[in-house]
Amino acid sequence: MEKILLGHGSGGRLMHQLIREYFAPKFNLKEFNDSAVVNFPTSLVHPFANSVERQALSVNRTTLLRLAFTTDSYVVSPIFFPGGNIGDLAVNGTVNDISMVGAKPLYLSAGFIIEEGFPINDLKVILSSMSDASQKAGVRIVAGDTKVVDKGKGDGIFINTSGVGIIRDGVELGAKNIKAGDRVIVSGLTGSHGIAVLAERNGLSFAPPVLSDTAPLNGLVDLMLNTSGEIRMMRDPTRGGVATTLKEIAEESGLCIIIEEDLIPVAPCVKGACELLGLDPLYIANEGILAAVVSPDAAEPLLKEMRDYSLGKNASIIGEAISGDTKTCGMVLLKTSIGGTRIIDMLSGEQLPRIC
Fold it and tell me: What confidence tier does 302 reach under pLDDT thresholds 50, 70, 90?
């Protein structure tokens, strides 16, 4: 590896290789979740907490305060696309990353790198979208930074958002919890965001139009955690799509995941667009769905509750984890609609650059 390629930002195998070989050793990274889980004694904040805060956090000298912390940068092109823009995408993406470890998102920061000559009216629309998205998600943007670069040295606007949230008591999600027989649930239609951005970027139109699914998932996560204590882990399948996310889960758990093509929810317009363009919806980015692994007994009751919630109405159980043998451990296998089976790997190269 001598130079950075577009594929290193795809969310697929090249990006994983870059992180594990270069970033992880230098920063001593051990886990690769959507958010870092940080534990520290609440006694550290006890001297500064007022009575209301002490009661809310149940502060004492032995309690650990469990925080989720995440950061993400958004370079999507174009910055306005059907169903959203870079502003609400930045807020929702960070809210979702915090939510995937079972945390309640609370506060965000926002950093802007703006190119000289960027239209003020466009900036106003983006900021309004961020404000609306944060209110909808129930979070506050409390800090930020703005930098302006010379014309031609940027690409309109880039946004970085970081976020922090508190993990509820008793919740500890992760691939290490997954057992053979557990079910895999996808909360909604796959591939909508990637196709919406691709269509806008290339001047394509579909009937009906494909809209991005960008949305905050913390409300759905709250419902799921309140419904069942047998959720093993959650992850939002953004870059690299559902396929790459499930491959990550399989490798981290050491189990084999089998999914069925006919059970994967895909909007007809997205499916048609993918067939037309030669794309696989399993690898297309999403910004408003999650993948969860849950115990077999909890799967159907949880699915019922999810389908009663707006962002989970198209939820589906798409497969399960099995122990497998030495050859299939860490693999994802797809049972196709024509009766065959194929191996699902991480995204290789770059399918849709600058999708988020």
Answer: very high
Residue 9: predicted pLDDT:
84
Q: Which distant-in-sequence residues (6+ apart) come within 8 Å of 124 by Cβ?
A: none
Q: Confidence band (pLDDT; 50, 70, 90) for 59?
A: very low
Instruction: Give the residue from 213, 179, 169, 220 showing the smallest Cα distance to 193.
Output: 213
Read off the pLDDT band of 152 (50, 70, 90).
very high
How wide is the angle at C-alpha 161 spanned by C-alphas 147 and 92, nearest 5°? 135
Tokens 């980015």 identify what position?
285
**What CATH topology corresponds to 31-167?**
60s Ribosomal Protein L30; Chain: A; (3.30.1330)
Q: Find out whether 12 and 40 touch, Cβ atoms under 8 Å.
A: no
Rounded-to-integer distance, Cα 92 and Cα 137, Å: 8
Cis amide leading into 78 (omega within 30): yes
Instruction: Find the angle CA(71)-CA(32)-CA(328) to the nearest 5 degrees.
Output: 145
> Phi, psi at residue 211, to the nearest 5°?
-110, 145
pLDDT at 349: 72
Kindly report the CATH number that applies to the domain delimited by 175-344. 3.90.650.10
CA 240 – CA 84 distance, rounded (Å): 20
CB 232 within 8 A of CB 293: yes
CA 68 to chain centre: 14
Q: Which residues pair with 257 in a beta bridge?
A: 321, 332
Question: How do the domains of the chain map onto residue ranges?
Answer: 31-167, 175-344
Rounded to two decimals, what is the model's pTM?
Answer: 0.91
Cα–Cα distance for residue pair 240/268, rounded to 1 Å: 20
